[in-house]
Each structure stands twice: as structure tokens, then as C-alpha cells.
Amino acid sequence: MQGFGAYKLSLVTPYTEKLLDAFMARNSDDPGFTFFVGKRAEDLARDPNLAIWLCLYYGEPQAYGHIELYAKPEKAHVCRFGVCVDRDYRGSGLGTQMVAHLLAQARERSKTKVNASVYADNAPMLRIYIEKYGLHEEGRFVDEERLNGASRDVVSVARFL
Q1: CB 157 within 8 A of CB 130
Q2: Residue 159's closest CA among 118, 109, 117, 115?
Q3: How does DSSP classify residue 96?
């Protein structure tokens, strides 16, 4: 199990999906990360196209990260990733560390391009992606989603490895 400081990274498997379930329950209403909407931990843990890590602090999940592999052969060189940090741990550096881990995992899987989507109003995550890790904006989807009647733009960011 890898980690940073007192935090340990744990790859989610069907045997550890209860930790993912606990994290999802605490963060399922997070308007900044809607990947969990309509999904079950059991299904995510068993999805062959997802590799999921939880950042654990004394056994409790504080941050989540995933790499999504594309099933289409013509996209075998690309992966998509996502990060969510528990509200109580935002600003602690966990998001930054998780992105670093996901980029390293993408390289280990011989991916040459990574991409992610982030809400345009999520300035902290955009800073991490763009300023710290050199991803660049590939596109902006205006009025892509609606949350409680409010329009939200989505920014697609990417980087070649």
C-alpha cells in the first residue's frame, strides 16, 4: 500500500468496497463531484475499466481517485481520471497528491494522454490540474449540467504524458 505521510493509498477491490461505500455515502451530495450519482460502490469496485484508490487516514477514506480505461481499441492510449476530496479535508493537499498518483498510474499503464472533466466553478481543482500538473483546457461545455436549476459549465482538461 502506497501513501504520503500518515495517509495510505488503497486500491479498491471487491474485498474493500465497503470503504468506497462509506466514502460515497459521505460525499454523494457533493455538487463538485457527481461521478457517484446513480452508482453503487459494488458496481464501481467490479468495473474492469476502472481502477479506484482511496486515501485512508487511520483506516478512514478521506479522498478518492480513479482512472477510467476506454474499452474502444482506438482509445487504448488514453485514460480519464477523477478526484474527490472529502469536504473536511479540502485544502489539505490530498487532491494534489491523488492527481500525482493517478498520473503515475497512467504512465505505468503505458497511457500517453490523460483527460478529466471539472466544473468551471471548481477553481481549486482547476488550479491543481492546470497550474500544478500542466493539463490544459481542451474544451468548455456551456450549460452542460443543471444543479437545482442553476446552469453549470464543464471544462475538459488533458495532458500528454
Answers
A1: yes
A2: 115
A3: H
Length of the chain measured in residues: 161
pLDDT digits (tens, 9 = 90+) for 148-159: 889 999 999 999
pLDDT tens-digit map of 121-130: 999 999 999 9
Backbone angles phi, psi at 153, to 5 degrees: -90, 150
The answer for residues whose C-beta is within 8 angstroms of residue 48's C-beta and 6 or more apart is: none
**Does the reported pTM lie above 0.85?**
yes
Tens of pLDDT, residues 96-113 = 999 999 999 999 999 999
The DSSP element (H or E) to which 51 belongs, if any, is strand 50-57
Q: Which domains does the chain have, with CATH numbers?
A: 3-113 (3.40.630.30)
